[in-house]
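Listing S7. Sequence submitted for prediction.
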Amino acid sequence: MSKTAESELLQSTKQNLQHAKLRIDDLMKDILSKDMEIIDLKETLVSSQQTTAALQEQLDKSNETLKETLKMLDATESKLGDKLNKILQLNNIINLKNRELAEYTEAFEKSVIDHKSEIDVLIAKLTTTDAFLEKNTITYEEEIESLSQIINKMATESEFIHINERQKFEENITKIQDGNQKLQESLDDLQKHFDSLIEENGRKDVQIMLLSSQLEERQRIVAKLDEDKCMLSEELTEVKTYLEEGRQTTESLSIRIPQLSKSIEEARKQCKQQTPSLSGNEKNLASIHSELTQKEASIQEKCTIIEHKQIVINRLTEKLQSITDNKTKLSSELDIANELIIEKQKQFNEQTLLLNVAQQDFTKVHLDITKKQNPNDKNCKIINDMHITIGNLTGKLQTTKDDLITEVDEIRKKYQDLRELCDGIEDVKAGLKNYMKSLEADVDSLNSKLHEEKKLHNNKTTACEENQTTIHTQKKQISQKQKLFETLEEDVMKLSTIIKDNNNRNVQLQELLLKKTEELRELSKKYDDMEAEFRREIEELLINERTKNAILLSELDDVKEKNYSLLNKFSRWI
């Protein structure tokens, strides 16, 4: 070979070696770049975690500030709620007093019908004052509700306020607190006025209670007199009716005694005829009861058989459920095995591609070596080293290839075994379903038979019960008739004594009639005297009440003026 050819071969081998080195360097660079990317990702993760922690701290701080502001707002709301509760309590007290006044006025109207027009005028004035007071309370409630709405709006807006604007918010809160103090002072003044009104109402209540007690006493006296009149009239009517009834009973008893003797003889004959039929019915019932007990025992046995079969069906359903669960598990394992096979095949394909690339490079280098075989040359040594390394790599790749093939074969065997298991499970499941269907058919047939037997049993039991009831009723009728015979005989004996007693009592009742008529005359005189005294006292009380109501109306006008002034102050403050 010429020197030019050798130099060309050397250059080509050098180029191939350089190409291989460059390829290896590129691969190393790719690996380093991937490592750097992983490091960068880790750093970004750490930085993101730090930023999230910082953001969490900021969120916690902002939450704490919001909680503090909410606490302040809750405190102000609680204070306003307490004030509202006080106002509502006062309003409730006023409403109660007004209701009591209305009740007392209604009672007064019922008792005093003659002076109704004057009392209506007074009630109208009181209702106007009550309406005015209710309007004032409603206006105060509306104003307090508007304040609470303003505070709620401030609470909603405070969530979006920045930390730098907190000072402004605190200044607003101080202003609101000052306004609340002023409101408290005005409410205290109102409460004093309400207390004075309550005291006046209490005095009125005492006076009205005294009047009502007097009215009740008078009404009780009148009611007693009315009751006495009614009692006397009722007693008179009862005495008259009792006398007439005594006469009628004496006449009817004299007619009834021979009829009773005839009915007693007829009933005795009927009892003698009914006794033999009852004994035959009792014997028939005993035989029917024995048959029914036997039928109940057979029905109980069939029920136990059905329960046993139901237990077997429940166990089979549990087994089917477990088989379906196992099938789902096996199908999931099959899916995992398929995924493993796919991954192993991908790895195998990647490694085969790398082997092919390395073998191509090696063949090129080997061709260059065969062209120029100089064992003393450095390039030849390098090529031999590379040849050794490539051989080692091919051996390792071959071993990995064999391992992968064995693993794939094992996975395929497992896959096949699992598939066979699934097929066997399906066969078992089908058999169990068929067995369950047969059991259910047996249970249905047994249930239908049992239902028919129960129907027959129920029909017989109802017939027996009806027979028993008829026998029982017949026995009762016989016993009742016997008792009637005894009672009728006793009644006949008693009637004669009653006739004698009635005659004696009629004489006594006539004497009582004369006494009661005299008592009625005396009571009517007393009643007329009481009515005259009562009318005089009511007229005096009405005059006193008119004067007191005039004083109260003047005081209410003063309270109205004070309320208007307070409302004006409150509206200016808002």
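Caption to Listing S7: primary sequence and predicted structure tokens for the chain studied. The chain has two domains: 67-255+518-573, 266-517. Residues 166-371 form the longest helix (206 residues).
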